[in-house]
Design goal:
Elements: E1 16-18, E2 43-50, H1 55-71, E3 80-82, E4 90-98, E5 103-109, H2 120-132, H3 144-147, H4 151-160, H5 179-182, H6 221-231, E6 247-256, E7 266-284, E8 300-312, E9 318-322, E10 326-328, H7 336-348, H8 376-393, E11 397-410, H9 414-421, H10 429-446, H11 450-460, E12 472-485, E13 488-491, E14 495-498, H12 521-531, H13 537-540, E15 547-550, E16 553-562, E17 568-578, E18 580-585, H14 593-597, H15 625-628, H16 631-634, H17 664-674, H18 687-690, E19 720-724, E20 732-738
Parallel strand pairs: 1-3
Antiparallel strand pairs: 2-4, 4-5, 6-7, 6-10, 7-8, 8-9, 11-12, 12-13, 14-15, 15-18, 16-17, 17-20, 18-19
GO cellular component, one term: SHREC complex
Biased composition (Low complexity): 167-183, 638-648, 680-694
Domain Cryptic loci regulator 2 N-terminal: 80-146
Length: 739
């Protein structure tokens, strides 16, 4: 319902005017948004000044004057009216809503320490205080703002003292038009009936739980909405990329021209997304149907877009902008000519620190004529403050929406427990590698025969009955649904870009990481035709582009570190985990099995060269010869460090590619035999058992987000596709930060 204001109100005949002798008004409380501006949605939101001759002013002055007369016992028989408001008081009409039918709210502004008055009953006690208290002590005022009472109490007190009429309550007496009811005689009560007393009380509220206790975790509605907006297929031309409370760049219409009028022009202003809404527009079709009206083929069409409600930084300006006028914060930064022009202007013009009254948009007067946009000198102070605010916020990050993740881990054996108990400090990376290599080599030599059947069962998917006896412990880990990364809102399930380029991530491949993909045929052909270049596969492949991660997990881990004084302490680190994807050319094809077997480590794509035994220098430093040496390379060379006699567990030999025409049971047996494992023959009847589901591993997940949904992968850039970097679907872990 739209609130309206009476258009007419006449003062009583021969009124007696009364004036205020004192006032607590301050003109700084008057509204500043008094110009009628129609936004892109056809709405207005401004304050209109009402003089003393307006109907609302007359009504307030008459009502307040009569109430003050009753409170101060002025002589009766007169119609008392306030001649004017107290000094520096003003009345305004707040227009809000559709431009053709807005809502109206009347406010009286004045006291600097009090809010605005919304009705005559709110202002009457304050007016009485102004007439009666020469000390101007607010403690003597009985209005709701000075006395801290509710308006219901204030109005009741005014009615009790006869200043305002008491509210008339509905009576339960019978109507005159019902004579039968009035002549009804009550029946005498023949027996004593028990009187039932009933009471109504509110349902007790459950006790509030601590914020860190999550008995049953549920997915955040904001997370589900944001992920669906990005991953789902939609008819929107531009998906809703921006999220609530993110900092974005909002396009100015028109832009603020700089001194040079080109590269130093202010085209975008940083803003915070407060809300978003779906906008639906109808438009006639280009080729209307001429064979009569068909409800299945209407002569109009609809288009959908997203409207963002943004608040510009450093100024008090809220604006509704379409999705094609908003870009993410990381997608733009002010160019150097603009920053240079700002420095020059700030050095020659005074800075207006009162930026709240500035608006980068031209105002529209009541006549509908827009005023000219602000000048560059007027805008540079507020714009400099806005980009400084955004730059400061972009330096912080924070985890949000924690939940408890539980999983099982096997307990350490007695031997490993004694070894770890006797160690006073955590092992270094080199010590951990050496100890793991020695332990694995000893286990292979001592239990080769006993582990044969277990290896076969693991390969064939047969549950191991001995694993049920392995003691496990339940571990609870603190995980999070999302984080704030500077100005961006990131949820688990998003695709994020990693700073590490693809050429720095196993550029020649690794046991579990594929080498980067090469360039597609269309890309190579384009470079041959345009630039006359050939043999540029290593420059145009995926190694020249970045890496993206599907963010599956955000977790906190405790890491022992040594501080500057040499003492051990525990540091909390945030890890982001998920599979990595490279951006491959759309027409690039995966190499065949034979090409993969003959692929060398010199670069992407198939090759028939033999692998060189000389390790290449990594971008992170020279490799450790203790880890890369081999028995053949150390023969006859006394300077070469000793190497391990067993194959390194960190780089197992490559398994042969399975033949798709061979059953999986036979393929697994052949693979094990080629690895030197003596596989016993199995009867055909036991193959049915191998098809049973394998038993869950000891580190089985015991808790997971409730109501979590799976989302489609976002589309890759035009001409490219996402390619997994790992061979077996492994996930990578990236350090986000530490505390």
């Amino acid at each position: 319902m739209v609130r309206t204001v009476a258009s007419k109100h006449e003062l009583p005949p021969n009124p007696t005017y009364k004036e205020f002798e004192r006032s607590d008004g301050d003109s700084s409380t008057w509204p500043v948004y008094t110009e009628r501006i129609v936004d892109s949605n056809g709405h207005v939101n401004y304050m209109q000044y009402l003089d003393l001759e307006q109907a609302a002013s007359k009504k307030w002055r008459s009502t307040v004057g009569q109430a003050v007369a009753k409170a101060l016992k002025w002589p009766e028989g007169h119609h008392y009216v306030l001649k004017d408001w107290p000094a520096n008081y003003r009345m305004y009409d707040h227009h809000k809503g559709p431009a053709d039918n807005p809502r109206h709210d009347i406010y009286l502004f004045g006291p600097k320490t009090l809010p605005k008055f919304r009705s005559p009953p709110e202002f009457i006690p304050h007016a009485i205080w102004l007439f009666t208290d020469p000390t101007m002590n607010n403690a003597n005022c009985e209005c709701k703002y000075c006395s801290k009472k509710t308006q219901r109490e204030v109005t009741h007190d005014l009615g009790t003292h006869g200043i305002l009429p008491m509210p008339v309550r509905a009576s339960g007496s019978p109507s005159v038009s019902s004579p039968a009811v009035s002549r009804r005689i009550p029946r005498p009560r023949t027996e004593t009936q028990p009187i039932v007393h009933a009471s109504v009380q509110k349902a007790p509220k459950p006790p509030e739980r601590a914020s860190n206790v999550v008995p049953k975790f549920h997915m955040k509605n904001e997370r589900d909405s944001d992920l669906r907006a990005v991953h789902q297929r939609t008819s929107l031309k531009i998906k809703r990329w921006c999220r609530e409370d993110e900092i974005v760049w909002c396009a100015l219409q028109p832009p603020i021209k700089g001194p040079q009028g080109d590269y130093d022009t202010i085209y975008f202003w940083p803003a915070i997304v407060q809300d978003y809404d779906l906008k639906i527009e109808t438009h006639p079709k280009e080729t209307p149907h001429t064979g009569g009206y068909d409800p299945k083929m209407p002569p109009w069409g609809t288009s959908h877009s997203t409207m963002y409600k943004v608040r510009l930084l450093a100024v008090s300006c809220v604006w509704n902008v379409p999705d094609d006028q908003v870009i993410p914060y990381q997608a733009y930064h002010p160019p150097k000519p603009l920053l240079d022009a700002m420095r020059a202007t700030l050095g020659t013009h005074p800075i207006d620190h009162n930026t709240t009254d500035f608006s980068p948009f031209p105002n529209t007067s009541t006549s509908g004529t827009p005023s000219p946009p602000p000048t560059f000198a007027q805008a540079v102070g507020a714009f400099a403050m806005s980009i400084q605010i955004a730059a400061e916020l972009s330096q912080y990050w924070a985890l949000t929406d924690s939940w408890s993740f539980q999983y099982n881990v096997p307990l350490p054996s007695s031997s490993s427990t004694s070894i770890s108990a006797g160690r006073s400090r955590p092992m270094s990376l080199q010590e951990a590698i050496s100890e793991a290599s020695t332990s694995n080599a000893a286990a292979l030599n001592n239990s080769r025969s006993s582990s044969t059947k277990q290896a076969v069962d693991n390969m064939l998917g047969i549950p191991n009955p001995l694993t049920t006896d392995i003691p496990t412990a339940t571990v609870t880990q603190n995980r999070f649904q999302g984080l704030w990364w500077g100005a961006e809102r990131i949820w688990t399930g998003d695709f994020v870009r990693i700073k590490l380029p693809r050429k720095a991530l196993a550029p020649h491949g690794a046991p579990h990481i594929k080498p980067p993909s090469g360039a597609g045929e269309a890309t190579l052909q384009e470079f041959r035709e345009k630039f006359g270049l050939d043999k540029v596969e290593h420059l145009l492949g995926a190694g020249s582009r970045g890496v993206v991660m599907r963010l599956d997990t955000l977790m906190l881990v405790d890491v022992p570190v040594t501080d500057e004084s040499g003492k051990m302490r525990t540091r909390k680190e945030c890890r982001a985990c998920g599979p990595l994807y490279e951006i491959a050319c759309e027409d690039w094809e995966e190499p065949t099995h034979s090409e993969m077997n003959g692929m060398n480590g010199s670069g992407p794509g198939p090759s028939t060269k033999k692998q060189s035994s000389t390790p290449m220098t990594s971008m992170f430093g020279s490799p450790d010869p203790n880890l890369l040496g081999s028995p053949s390379s150390s023969q006859g060379d006394t300077t070469t460090p000793p190497t391990m006699s067993q194959p390194s567990p960190l780089k197992p030999p490559a398994l042969p590619n399975p033949d798709p025409a061979v059953p999986i049971e036979a393929t697994s047996t052949n693979v094990l035999r080629q690895q030197g494992v003596d596989v016993p023959s199995r009867p055909a009847s036991s193959l049915s058992q191998s098809r049973s589901l394998p038993r869950a591993p000891p580190n089985d997940q015991l808790s997971q987000p409730v109501a979590s949904a799976a989302y489609n992968m976002p589309p890759a850039p035009d001409g490219y596709k996402f390619r997994s970097d790992s061979r077996r679907g492994l996930r990578s872990s990236v350090l986000v930060g530490h505390a």
